[in-house]
Amino acid sequence: MSEKRTEIGELGEFGLIDRISEPFVNKQSSTKVGIGDDAAVISSGDHFTVVSTDMLIEGVHFDLSYMPLAHLGYKAVAVNVSDIAAMNAIPSQVTVSIGLSNRFSVEAVDMLYEGIRHACEAFGVDLVGGDTTSSPSGLIISVTAVGTVTKDAVTYRYGAQHHDIICVSGDLGGAYVGLQVLEREKQVFMSNPDMQPKLEDYDYVVKRQLKTEARTDIVHELKALDIQPTAMIDVSDGLASDLFHICKQSKVGVRIYEDKLPISTTTYDTAVELNFDPITCVLNGGEDYELLFTISESDADKVKNHHDITMIGFVQNEEDGRLLITKSGTTVNLKAQGWVHF
Amino acid sequence: MSEKRTEIGELGEFGLIDRISEPFVNKQSSTKVGIGDDAAVISSGDHFTVVSTDMLIEGVHFDLSYMPLAHLGYKAVAVNVSDIAAMNAIPSQVTVSIGLSNRFSVEAVDMLYEGIRHACEAFGVDLVGGDTTSSPSGLIISVTAVGTVTKDAVTYRYGAQHHDIICVSGDLGGAYVGLQVLEREKQVFMSNPDMQPKLEDYDYVVKRQLKTEARTDIVHELKALDIQPTAMIDVSDGLASDLFHICKQSKVGVRIYEDKLPISTTTYDTAVELNFDPITCVLNGGEDYELLFTISESDADKVKNHHDITMIGFVQNEEDGRLLITKSGTTVNLKAQGWVHF
Questions:
Q1: For position A289, which CATH number holds?
Q2: By CB count within 10 A, which of A136, A211, B42, B82 is most buried?
């Protein structure tokens, strides 16, 4: 080992990924896109096969004191399926590998796989492989999802162009606010185990955190609406952070409007109750797994009355920056915080 | 959680896999084979895409006190590539996800990925994705490999037939004996850190353990020899255990000959020195990642003089059992021990 020691935190997750991927050169003619998008794209005859993978580690990505195992299994599949959807592709298969400490019984594994099975049914994917092994500490889940997309429909992060319209599915901020509710109830429970958690009023946000849904339905809808998105990503790190990925890879700037950002009433009210700024939850909360995409101006009419797609702003030239227009009309620079795992 | 608690050890790894996979039903027409072979097989137009995944966990699968990080990276890719080769397929892409505790520096990650890169070059695969995250304890590596094979060449575990000849590439037992050498040197080092490890005489077996090679070359050779194997698996758990997988899935018995089993002189001598029975190392050692396959009797002449493929026995009817003919001519029942992770 060399004498120099650089902490991973100094680079950050994206810096580490850049450093890792830099020396690798793709040589297979079938590799269309490697590291750097939501999924890898592999040419398979007349279509593309897309492959995405994610690792979830207990104590880093989930807390089993409030995340039931079945929900965790569901989520592990959903977040990977979401990456496939973010390529405008239809997911078809998943592999699931698990590492288990001896804290986990066979019955616990059954519950985990019950959630995995429900997710496979919900998203129409087959479980086709995996690995099971022991772990010295805690639970580790690694999922790889495979999907297909026709060559002309595949959507990368890099295709957004000046004047395109920025759209997002569903509403945002709920998963983050739900996590705060769960954390608060955990603290209450730990200080007084006789207290029953009061979650009824928070059903929606708690569900957004615990029951992650991947928007494969939006992929089908876009096809039905005859819309080819110019760029797409799923909102995992947070709207701002994920929008920045599109900006960086498409070499564009953006202008989004605070008053257009979709937030549910429950999310808004709960954020206020917890002393969080609702707009910060929307911009930086993450884990909503909605689809964020750009479309050509000429497609605007096709989505303007869509109940589940919101137009939140425009793509502009890179030198014009990444801007948020507040409700009061002030223009501020967007900041991406995202999730910091290191 | 239900009141009953069954320990995972009661089921064992294969029992757990059976239990996990039982409720899953494949629904995608593109899923040709799911759980239960070396890799999943997905139809992609005129060919099959094969997908395999493995998880390696520090303290379970590797010990960094004698496994250099670059070797570990190489091995993590090689074992997955080996699964692709075991389908008679050519690997093309891999994804690599890692979980890292703060014990690991950026320089350590560089070394790990240097090994990954060397493996990608050696096996002709592209690194196309992955995930990087922190881990509360130790290093976790999860690799997924993708490969392709024509529909008529794909080789499962289930195609072996009565009278087929059982073949294996390379030699066996070396990886296990190498592990024992490394374990012994570690104990010596721990009791007296001034002692330098004496590994020169054990180069070959240590290399078999630390520098895992996947036999993609054999896939090319079989094609060049115009041999379509009837069944194939890679030797990861041990010759006996992996042969049993072929027996179970092909519904056949086997008869193998002790005097035909390929073992290198170094492996043999080192096993004797360490008071291990060399044949037990060959039968149950595991981690050699050679290819074990069956071929039609009519193909025997094509391999009989091959320097790197050994015919070790015959496939027989299931009711005739799984037999080892010892050097003295005695017939004994084969026993599979394999690796127990739980």
A1: 3.90.650.10
A2: B82
Q: Is residue A339 part of a domain?
A: no
Question: Does pLDDT of B2 surpass 50?
Answer: no
Residue A312 and residue A175 share a domain: yes
Please report the residues numbered 110 through 139 in chain A whose beta carbons come closer than 8 angstroms to any beta carbon of chain B: 110-111, 113-114, 117, 120, 124-138
Residue A1 scores a pLDDT above 50? no
| Structure confidence at residue A338 (pLDDT) | 54
Minimum CA–CA partner of A96 in chain B: B53
Nearest-Cα residue of chain A relative to residue B34: A128
pLDDT of B314 over the 50 cut: yes
Q: What is the distance in angstroms between the Cα of B25 and the nearest Cα belonging to chain A?
A: 7
Verify that A200 and A68 share a domain, yes or no: no
Using pLDDT thresholds of 50, 70 and 90, give the confidence band for residue A155. Answer: very high
Of B123, B150, B177, the residue at which a domain comes to its end is B150
Instruction: Mark out the alpha helices in B86-173 (DSSP H runs).
Output: 106-123
Same domain for A211 and A114? no
Domain count across chain B: 2
> Both A68 and A174 in a single domain?
no
Mean pLDDT of all residues in chain B? Answer: 91
B52 touches chain A (CB under 8 A): yes
CA distance B305 to chain A (A): 33
Asked if residue B341 is part of any domain, the answer here is no
Residues of B whose CB is below 8 A from A47 = 44-45
Structure tokens at B88: 């008679």
Is residue A54 domain-shared with residue A140, that is, in the same domain?
yes
Tokens representing residue B228 in the block: 């379509």
pLDDT in tens, A286-321: 999 999 999 999 999 999 999 999 999 999 999 999
Residues 6 or more apart whose Cβ sits within 8 Å of residue B67:
B75, B210
Sort out which chain B residues have CB atoms less than 8 A from A49's CB and list them. Answer: 42, 44, 49, 146
* Residues spanned by the domain of B224: 165-333
Complex confidence, ipTM:
0.89
Same-domain pairing of B326 and B201: yes
| Phi, psi at B333, each rounded to 5° | -75, 135
| Residue A342, pLDDT above cutoff 80 | no
| Residue where the block lists tokens 């086709």 | A128
* Residue A17 belongs to a domain: yes
Taking only the tens place, the pLDDT of each residue in A178-197 is: 999 999 888 887 887 777 66
- Single residue among A150, A184, A204 that ends a domain in this structure: A150
Are the Cβ atoms of B92 and A31 closer than 8 angstroms? yes
- Chain A closest CA to B26's CA: distance in Å? 5
Q: Which residues of B touch A342 (CB under 8 A)?
A: 102, 134
Q: What is the per-residue pLDDT for B45?
A: 80
B70 contacts in A (CB within 8 Å)?
none
Check CB contact of A272 with chain B, cutoff 8 Å. Answer: no
Chain B, nearest residue to A103 by Cα: B7
Chain B contacts of A55, Cβ < 8 Å? 97-99, 131, 133, 140, 142
Same domain, B246 and B296: yes
At A104, which CATH number? 3.30.1330.10
Look up residue A143 and give its two tokens. Answer: 């999922």
Residue B291, domain member (yes or no): yes
Q: Are residues B190 and B116 in the same domain?
A: no
Arithmetic mean of pLDDT, A79-91: 95
